[in-house]
């Protein structure tokens, strides 16, 4: 029987307090310990999350390992059917999930959280339809033998997800993993465990016990034991470069495959012939202002041709000024709050660096909320910097906040070099009406995702992943299911 919807996010948060999901059941951490979950828009504690540690991780992994044998024996299309059913069931809970995400992350309900909850369901439906694509090959080898390959699941997958888009990024990891025949243990971000737990609870109405387990806790206490657990055969991680390297080193000790989606400092190049109004709209989408800039693909470096620079900046500021900052659960709100005090302080420090740069101009946009109930909220006005060179820290380092730098350029060759002058390589975009320029830029920009005259967010069936320090492997596509969640076995039948 399906769970009843609960459209009161505060009541739902309380209901989910101090719970993990292991072997199909909600359960407290073995130690009974928990940690507070805070609404970043008000500073109020809304729930307590179970503080999982190595013993809890072991229970979850053992449950997943036990379930994986029978799950893998199901026909791939049957696994796909169950995963699709999860998507359809989640689609009936979009509103409650969206409100819970808004409450715990500070992301605005109308512009961000409701969208994410809807795409979450779509990802499971999409991957569920790919069960029949787990195909092998016929290999010409010898005339007296038949040689084939077949795709087999890896086993137990450990998935570690971030707080900025917890539901979508979780779905992109676990949906292909489960369809491919693996079982999963998800470790949620400390700042955003509630909606992930609710999704796990809903999906476990459909899935056999142990196929999908969820642990909350911090990195050293829960994340590290998950990566190092001997029965985890694959790790997929989204987060910082520093933590990603630690995950990679630990997995290397076990010689297991890893997918890493790490940081970004994405360039957006606006040529002199670009449609300015379209580029401005794309800059607002690309910078993810409605997500407070908390996105690894954020267009936080905008290179704009000198001929249109001033007009572009003026129009961009005017559009961001129209956006409303406020209570994430209010339908009028466009922009919510920063996720945590630590992230708030980090963003503030980068703004101070930019303000101190010689020749810099600081444009603060929108307006702080005036509601007294939000006085303790972690709100930061979006900032547009001009006059800061590309070698400044504001242009070099990932801020993960509503801060972008607009850099003036005149020479095409120079701007391509500047765009590529970064340790990251996740996303990039070029804005021009000239087809030759567009095609040339798509070939030369060093990024895993390059878009022309648009800045779309990640979509199902669109291969997504970075190069350089932005990570390893791809997500969101059939390719990600086949290459990252199965291994290929070669079988030779000697007919002689």
TrEMBL record:
PROSITE patterns: ALDEHYDE_DEHYDR_CYS (PS00070), ALDEHYDE_DEHYDR_GLU (PS00687)
A Pfam family assignment: Aldedh
Keywords tagged on the record: Oxidoreductase
Origin superkingdom: Bacteria
Domain Aldehyde dehydrogenase: 33-491
Active site as annotated: 261
Cross-referenced InterPro entries: Ald_DH/histidinol_DH (IPR016161), Ald_DH_C (IPR016163), Ald_DH_CS_CYS (IPR016160), Ald_DH_CS_GLU (IPR029510), Ald_DH_N (IPR016162), Aldehyde_DH_dom (IPR015590)
Gene3D superfamilies for this protein: Aldehyde Dehydrogenase, Chain A, domain 1, Aldehyde Dehydrogenase, Chain A, domain 2
Entry's Gene Ontology molecular function annotations: oxidoreductase activity, acting on the aldehyde or oxo group of donors, NAD or NADP as acceptor
Family listed: Belongs to the aldehyde dehydrogenase family.
Protein name (Swiss-Prot/TrEMBL): Aldehyde dehydrogenase
